[in-house]
């Protein structure tokens, strides 16, 4: 589904209380009885106020009534979870405005947002329901020992929590990844790297061998920390151009504050971590080899570079 914020500004505090009550009730009920929503929301207007908010939320598609249920109740929709998450980010002064969607993946939506100071950020919304549960569970190290209980929304929330934790840990270890700013439910707010391109959009590089070696080095560095990316490919690697001063023999450059004193280097930025695996995973070797093979295959296809050329040189 696509994030739709047109109803966001019109919800009253009572509507938010009722929507939160449905979320809380969803922890123990697939369909939350209206009586529990009423009891949890505890509106001053009583049941009539709860029913009024339920009607508003249902019309906005944030909750849904299940006709086949043996009792009167509602379930939280992905739209409702989106609104609760956004509301939390707004209340915490993390997000001020929501822009357009800039990316769609198998398991997430990427949306441009801005903070109260106008700084552009990325909102990543995890949506695991787009692929099968069997695929999700087999590819997620942290779900290995869990039962299949819970909804897609629960699994999406868990995926966001784990990805946020990985991003924080990787930055602490010096890996170049987007800055994780906040996490709420199934969403992550992170820095927007505006001067980088996905590797898949890069048509040529001045030194394919150097970039290849750096990417393989990243895979090995992750492994030295006990981790495997699990989806290390041209879609999940950004390439950022950085200007650095030339390292001229003798300690001084011959130019004078001009571009002659600078050179451009390509810096890989890793993204997308919910599928990251431990080296202890039973299929660790297969995922590690697959990450390496993805890099090899892309460089052969895009840059006509083979890794054995390095070995033979």
From TrEMBL:
Gene Ontology molecular function, alphabetical: ATP binding; metal ion binding; protein serine/threonine kinase activity
GO biological process terms on file: maturation of SSU-rRNA
Recorded catalytic activity of this chain's protein: L-threonyl-[protein] + ATP = O-phospho-L-threonyl-[protein] + ADP + H(+); L-seryl-[protein] + ATP = O-phospho-L-seryl-[protein] + ADP + H(+)
Enzyme class, spelled out: transferase
Coiled coil (residue ranges): none
Cellular component, GO annotation: cytosol; nucleus; preribosome, small subunit precursor
Pfam families on file: RIO1 (PF01163), Rio2_N (PF09202)
UniProt keyword terms in alphabetical order: ATP-binding, Kinase, Magnesium, Metal-binding, Nucleotide-binding, Serine/threonine-protein kinase, Transferase
Enzyme Commission (EC) number: 2.7.11.1
Similarity-based family: Belongs to the protein kinase superfamily. RIO-type Ser/Thr kinase family.
The protein's name in its UniProt record: Serine/threonine-protein kinase RIO2
Native organism: Grosmannia clavigera (strain kw1407 / UAMH 11150) (Blue stain fungus)
């Amino acid at each position: 589904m696509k994030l739709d914020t047109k109803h966001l500004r019109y919800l009253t505090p009572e509507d938010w209380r009722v929507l939160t009550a449905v979320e809380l009730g969803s922890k123990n009920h697939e369909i939350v009885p209206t009586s529990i929503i009423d009891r949890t929301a505890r509106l001053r207007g009583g049941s009539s106020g709860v029913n009024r908010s339920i009607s508003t939320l249902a019309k906005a598609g944030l909750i849904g009534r299940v006709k086949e249920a043996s009792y009167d109740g509602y379930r939280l929709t992905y739209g409702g979870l989106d609104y609760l998450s956004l509301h939390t980010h707004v209340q915490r002064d993390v997000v001020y405005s929501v822009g357009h969607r800039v990316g769609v993946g198998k398991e997430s939506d990427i949306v441009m947002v801005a903070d109260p100071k106008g700084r552009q950020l990325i909102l990543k919304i995890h949506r695991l329901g787009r692929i099968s549960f069997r695929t999700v569970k087999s590819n997620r190290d942290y779900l290995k020992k869990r039962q299949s209980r819970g909804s897609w929304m629960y699994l999406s929330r868990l995926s966001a929590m784990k990805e946020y934790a990985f991003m924080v840990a990787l930055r602490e270890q010096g890996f170049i990844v987007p800055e994780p700013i906040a996490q709420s439910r199934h969403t992550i707010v992170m820095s927007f790297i505006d001067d980088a391109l996905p590797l898949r959009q890069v048509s040529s590089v001045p030194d394919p061998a150097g970039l290849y070696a750096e990417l393989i080095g990243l895979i090995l560095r992750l492994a030295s920390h006990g981790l495997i990316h699990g989806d290390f490919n041209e879609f999940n690697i950004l390439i950022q151009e950085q200007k650095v001063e030339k390292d001229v023999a003798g300690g001084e450059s011959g130019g004078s504050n001009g571009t002659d004193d600078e050179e451009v280097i390509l810096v890989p930025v890793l993204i997308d971590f919910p599928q990251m695996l431990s080296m202890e995973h039973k299929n660790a070797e297969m995922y590690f080899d697959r990450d390496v093979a993805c890099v090899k295959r892309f460089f052969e296809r895009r840059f006509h570079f083979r890794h054995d050329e390095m070995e033979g040189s």
